[in-house]
Amino acid sequence: MLNIPSFSPFRILLAILIAVGMTSGSNAFADEAANHHPKSNHGGDEREGAQDAIHVMWLNHYALLPGDDSVQVTYNSTSSGVGGGLSALVVHSTTLGDWGNSGGIKVVEMAVQVPPRHDIVGVRVCYELTSANSFISQIRLAQVQNPPAFAYVLLDDGTDLVAVGPACIDSQATMIDPEAGPVLLDLRVNFGSVSDRIAIRGVGLRLKPKD
Questions:
Q1: Residues 182, 138, 156, 168: is their CA dihedral positive or negative?
Q2: What is the tens place of the pLDDT at every residue in 66-93?
Q3: 73 near 92, Cβ under 8 Å?
Q4: Residue 186 belongs to domain spanning
Q5: β-strand 151-157 against 55-58: which pairing, if any?
Q6: pTM > 0.90: yes or no
Q7: Total structural domains in the chain?
Q8: Residue 198 and residue 105: Cα distance in Å, rounded?
Q9: How far apart are CA 169 and CA 94, in angstroms?
């Protein structure tokens, strides 16, 4: 066995090399640990971003009801009779214009359900027309108050959807807390001919998670 004096230059050099190697290894380990930071923090950033995300929740558009007897809805799973024939809730009218026989606006209407801890920030409508002369003329959301004697209109988008389509569009933005009361969705329709048809192929709520 090689006998090296305790204070020989070789032993001192050996000690220095060992110390440098341990320090480098420690720094390398620290860098590796930093690069593999626990995913919980990164996941927290993703969850924070998700709180700001807007999601679409599709409703049962076949549940839309006629506002009065001047409006009719039909359904045929084989062919809607509009465009390529894909099934849809098909809206008809026995009168012209956008005012019904009851004296109110001509609509199809439904109540909407929203998952807990979400606000409504808009509506998405997918549709197709047989003619640009008959179209959806208004998307409206109203919230029933307590006591339930009236409803405040909180979204009133009067954009005429005259593109024959098929098309999906988003309404103007709103902010509705569904926990404050029931929410009603109205699609106002305007008919230039009683032979025209409006095919509603999807209706969704644009939702934002509460903070």
A1: positive
A2: 999 999 999 999 999 999 999 999 999 9
A3: yes
A4: 55-209
A5: unpaired
A6: no
A7: 2
A8: 16
A9: 26
